[in-house]
Amino acid sequence: MTETMVEAMNKDQDTTTNSIVITGLRKSYEKSSNADTAYAVDGISFDVPKGQFVTLLGPSGCGKTTTLRCVAGLEQATEGRIEMGGEVVFDAARKRHVRPEERPIAMVPQSYGIWPHMRVIDNAAFPMRHGRNRRKGPEVRQRALEMLEQVGLAGLADRWATQLSGGQQQRLALARALLGNPEVLLLDEPLSNLDAKLRAKLRQELRSFQEQFGVTALYVTHDQAEALAMSDTVIVMNQGRVEQIDRPERLYDHPRSSFVADFIGSANLFPVRDATAGPAGGVLAKTDIGPILCTRSAPGEDVRPHDGGFVCVRPEDVEVRPDDAGAPPADNEFAGVVESAEFLGDRLELVVRTANVPVTVSTRASRSLRPGQEIVLRPAPAATSYLAR
Ligand SMILES: Nc1ncnc2c1ncn2[C@@H]1O[C@H](COP(=O)(O)OP(=O)(O)O)[C@@H](O)[C@H]1O
Ligand SMILES: [Mg+2]
User: Fold this and answer.
1) Ligand nearest to the CA of 67
2) For a substitution probing ligand 1, which of 25, 29, 188, 237 has the most ligand atoms within 8 Å of its CB?
3) How much distance in Å is there from the Cα of 50 to the middle of ligand 1?
4) 3-104+183-253: which CATH number, 2.40.340.10, 3.40.50.300, 1.10.10.60, 1.10.510.10?
5) Of 27-36, 105-114, 367-376, which one has max mean pLDDT?
6) pLDDT digits over 307-319, tens only?
């Protein structure tokens, strides 16, 4: 996504109230900066609308944790500005830096940050006794007990924190964060230490707590399935920059770059040598397997020829038919040979070699297609996009 598109998007959202507005954030861990300075976060801008669940998604090392720590105030950015609830909490140019404990946030780190020398109840009550809005008296314990019950830890209040299972510690970390009554919850890969089954269960729970408490969430993960399942909006990051900001369905259906297409789900990406206007308002893109017709575009946008880029088609959008002896492939059809066929229960996953290029195809499990078989591939034009990069 270009800077101007990010800006246009941010302007669009100005009509809603934002819990967080981040503008031009850059962060280098180096002491002094020069032309070769490496930036962990390299000029990102995005909003987190009030009440939404927004996720920073990207591969390890792309700058997610650094971004979250800048929002929390645990790191100071090199450039840029952060607003929270309409107040500027960080501004590099004006040297403004509101301390973490003065910001309306609660952070759930990957390691939970639970104190082993305290009982469950005292861990939970900690932000009420020591946080921004300190309270005293019996209602603190009462409120903590209610919250423990809400997150499914009723009856465990007087155990030592170390006597909890991984999933229970995760719930305790969440209860403690919510008891600080934050405007924004910051969560850094909070489910990554749990096994796959528990992870899938807790991500649903986490999302429903977030809605129930009406708290805004900024969530970090490298797991695309988690991001798609939980988020209102996903911010895809790559090498310290924002690649795309969109709803989960839009990211999958209308990726804006080969990076996003490849990171979200799986995609066939064919480099384009040359592109011309094609039928049906589409583009005919010349690739190593031949000319492919691309007519998919995001609503309100056109498909236009330009230099380079990639054709992108998902495995489930490539049709296959047996090669009827002799009949030459029609337009937008490509002859190939099945290289491998993997039965995955609900579907059959094929790798088909055409013009020496491997193409991944996902088809009905009931079909009998075997390695060595000659077939014809047909990428569905309406599901084939032409990406600029
Ligand atoms: N404290 C630090 N000092 C120096 N470099 C760091 C520090 N923390 C992170 N980095 C570097 O910044 C980049 C982004 O890291 P990070 O924000 O942790 O990424 P992510 O959370 O997406 O995996 C990486 O190249 C990482 O090595
Ligand atoms: Mg990280």
Assistant:
1) 1
2) 29
3) 28
4) 3.40.50.300
5) 367-376
6) 899 999 999 999 9
